[in-house]
Amino acid sequence: MKDTKTIITFLTVIIFMSIATGYIAGYFVYRGYKQKTAYFDKQARLTMGRFRELEGNLQELYSGLERSIDNSRLERRRVLSSIESIKEDIQGWKKGYNVSMSELRGAVEDMKVDRLTRMVENLQGDIDEFELAVQDLNLKLGDIEGRTISRKRDGKSVDLGKISIRKKAKKQK
């Protein structure tokens, strides 16, 4: 029995040692678990903090984009209204240009008519001078032949001698 008691005692000691070793091993495992859990909790808090920061940055970015879009829309409206205003100005200038060109063409035509009128008047003057020269020659011929030549002009009788004097008076003016 002594052997049985010793074996039981020995088994009891081994069981207690196993239990104590289990507790010690459990303590170290629990301590490792707690450290790892604390580390993961810390990492989770850091990650959540980063996510919150990222979420805030994304909100700021979204707000900035909305502001940019709104500003772009306003700028687009302003540019479009400016373009419309410029188009209206161009149309006004175009109308003014067309009116000016019409007036200029009319003035050029008037100048051409005036020039042609002056040319016709000059030619008429040259013709009148030529006629006077012919009449002077006829008068001189008539004087040589001893007769006086008169010609009706505009229903009036004109002495050719006076015409030649008149021509000289015209040239003197």
Features:
single chain, 173 residues, mainly alpha, two-stranded antiparallel sheet, 2 helices, 2 strands, 91% helix, rod-shaped, disordered C terminus
In short:
The protein is mostly helical.
Structure description:
Helices cover 91% and strands 5% of the residues. The protein is built from 2 helices and 2 strands. The radius of gyration is 64 Å and the shape is rod-shaped. The chain has one domain. The longest helix has 144 residues. It is mainly alpha-helical and 173 residues long. It has a two-stranded antiparallel sheet with strand order 1-2.
Q: State the helical fraction.
A: over 70%
The average pLDDT score comes to: 81
Distance between the termini: 179 Å
Individual helix count: 2
The helix-and-strand class reads mainly alpha
Cross-sheet strand order for the largest sheet: 1-2
Please tally the β strands and state the result: 2
Count of all domains:
1
Major beta-sheet overview: 2 strands, antiparallel
Overall shape: it is rod-shaped
Beta strand %: under 5%
Q: What layout of secondary structure does this protein have?
A:
Layout: H1 2-145, E1 150-153, E2 156-159, H2 160-172
Antiparallel strand pairs: 1-2
